[in-house]
Design goal:
binds flavin mononucleotide, single chain, five-stranded antiparallel beta sheet, 39% helix, alpha+beta, NADH Oxidase, 9% strand
């Protein structure tokens, strides 16, 4: 389907592009990820004088209903995978989604039930999930996704623009880009969107950003990954996306999601063509692990 991405491509102006490139190169070069010494000095440490602001508990979160222990009623068919196979073969599936096969509501409910077993900080369970299957809504969201995609393609941290010298790594990044281009072009045709939401905005909380963000986002995103694993176990494929969040407000308006509620991403979901997914290429463990100290 020719959706004319090329025509819609947004060119970043030169100044913005230069600023992004400088920021990105500084982030690669500096162990402090491009922050200046002054910014690092000025970053909040621990509780501010007088404690966190009152805004920390938005009203909607004050009186959640008493939770009940939940039996997860698993009735849909699962493909035979060991736990390790499941964990190592759950890929970002884009091209191999069957665009013409709808996903039964029962399956979506089942993977969501499983997602609810994920851990959350203080057992807050601050999540909600917006499931979208209506074609008009998906098409409206897809337009915003493609607008974001057009900007992303020009960004220095887009998969294919990252400054790798190794030709094999360059080729891998290009494959990711090609696959992601397919998703952008066919976004509205993905059978189901699931938007995992967080019930409070981290930026409203007056505590060190890394503490607030890690605590709140991790209290939704682990559930989203459980959902992706449960989906894979049932022969579905999924892809976590965040690009559309450049237009979080606009997508909120399409779906009636209030701005106080954070959209943490959007999972595209559908039946996968085949089940034979393999572990993905990853940088070696020894380049990623520091034993005992950095
Ligand atoms: C935080 C995050 C944001 C992502 N955003 C997008 C996105 O907007 N669009 C997209 O096509 N893929 C997106 N992805 C998928 C990544 O490209 C994918 O996980 C990565 O290339 C590894 O894929 P693999 O597990 O199949 O090897 C995102 C993944 C993560 C974790």
């Amino acid at each position: 389907m020719a959706l004319g991405l090329e025509e819609r491509r947004v060119r970043l102006d030169e100044a913005t592009r230069d600023r992004l490139v400088r920021l990105f190169l500084a982030a690669l070069a500096e162990p402090e990820h491009g922050l200046s010494k002054d910014q690092i000095e000025a970053a909040p440490r621990g509780l501010p004088a007088g404690g966190p602001s009152e805004s920390i508990w938005p009203r909607a979160e004050r009186s959640p209903p008493a939770p009940e222990s939940r039996e997860v009623d698993v009735s849909t068919t699962q493909i035979p995978l060991t736990p390790d196979e499941l964990l190592t073969t759950t890929r970002a599936v884009r091209r191999r989604i069957d665009l013409d096969r709808p996903v039964d509501r029962e399956v979506v409910e089942e993977v969501l039930e499983i997602a609810l077993q994920a851990p959350t900080a203080s057992n807050m369970q601050p999540w909600s999930f917006v499931v979208v299957t209506e074609p008009d809504k998906k098409a409206a969201i897809a337009e915003w996704y493609r607008k974001s995609w057009a900007a992303y393609e020009e960004m220095p941290f887009a998969a294919a623009n990252l400054p790798y010298d190794d030709p094999a790594r360059k080729a891998l990044q290009q494959r990711v880009m090609d696959s992601a281009t397919y998703l952008a072009e066919h976004f509205e045709r993905m059978p189901v969107f699931v938007i995992p939401c967080l019930g409070m905005r981290p930026e409203a909380i007056d505590l060190p950003a890394s503490f607030v963000q890690a605590t709140l986002y991790s209290s939704v995103i682990q559930a989203a990954w459980s959902l992706q694993l449960a989906a894979r176990a049932r022969g579905l494929g999924s892809c976590w996306t965040t690009l559309h969040l450049l237009y979080e407000r606009e997508i909120g308006e399409i779906l009636g999601i209030p701005y106080e509620v954070v959209q943490t991403g959007l999972l595209t979901l559908g039946h996968a063509k085949g089940t034979d997914f393999r572990p993905g290429p990853r940088e070696p463990l020894e380049t990623k692990v520091h034993w005992e100290a950095w």
